[in-house]
């Protein structure tokens, strides 16, 4: 009777399978996240779970689903499981496990390796941003030889003419399976492609001598001179300003500028917003930029009170200001003691559409993968494909003048 997989903690010793080629242990690394671009891919803050007595004769995707259910995980469309091939690194050894046919290679490896590692991607990071490191199961496809256009000199019976002919390079395969390609070396000696103006021996010193005047000072000193305001003039007690002008000077540097400050809002007591709507919008941008969840306890046209998670001291209190006619922060505690989240509700499709509308205007055929990479670099979060698709659609509607699709933040 075949054994069923059994979970054991890290403090327990793994079983000894002896010479049995059908038994192995599955190591599930979970509760962490992938990050890093290029060769710096890594999995951070992961937890290991061990499942012994796995059998190659009965092992299937159903068992992997049972392993996930043990930790209250499910295949929800965002979560994916990857097998790290023995002896490989994250950058070159990850294979996605979705169907029973995907674990065929995994079962074969279990005959030699008695511990196989599965890694859980909770945020769909790899498929959205790093699909270049993923491998797929199944046999390797054969090489395909495509026709190429090679310039060649051909002499006709009635005279000489220089033409281009469509040829297929000869190809063969060595005993080791390496593809070799043979092309007539004389086919590239076409005089029609020779141009003495671009000879590498000539260099470009003559261009420099003919077009650059060394005596001209191109440092643009006038452009680098800035007129600095005398800050002491603002502190002069003999200015004899009216009360309204003095109040204006006091509030000059305390007004929130959405064109400059909205990308990364920095709150402080006394900061004035033009309206409560602008303050709400700044709180959304702050929540996304800092990966924290901001909860509004009071939120009306006269008062706004916002806090973070229970136990975190961060808070913001603002009320309508009759002097400026806007909204003023009366109290603020900017310190967070909570952990940043990778699933912030404020990262909505309308927010992404408004934030990246200029990039989408420049490249209206932007792919979801490229869009996801921009979001990842900007906020270190990776939204799902549905949210990215909707944000791209909303931005395109605004770009093309669809007023019904304006942003409603």
Give structural notes.
This protein has helices spanning 61-70, 104-109, 125-129, 205-211, 231-234, 243-250, 258-261, 276-290, 349-355, 357-362, 368-379, 385-399, and strands at 6-8, 23-30, 33-35, 42-44, 47-55, 80-84, 94-97, 115-121, 134-135, 148-155, 160-167, 170-173, 179-182, 272-273, 295-299, 303-307, 315-320, 327-333. With 409 residues, it is α+β, with helices and mostly antiparallel strands. The two termini are 60 Å apart. The relative contact order is 0.07.
Structural class: alpha+beta
Number of distinct beta strands: 18
Shape: elongated
State the distance separating the first and last CA atoms: 60 Å
> Segments where pLDDT lies below 50 for 5+ residues?
154-195, 220-236
- Please give the radius of gyration in angstroms: 33 Å
Largest sheet: 7 strands, mixed
What kind of oligomer do you see? single chain
Search tags:
409 residues, alpha+beta, seven-stranded mixed β-sheet, five-stranded antiparallel β-sheet, elongated
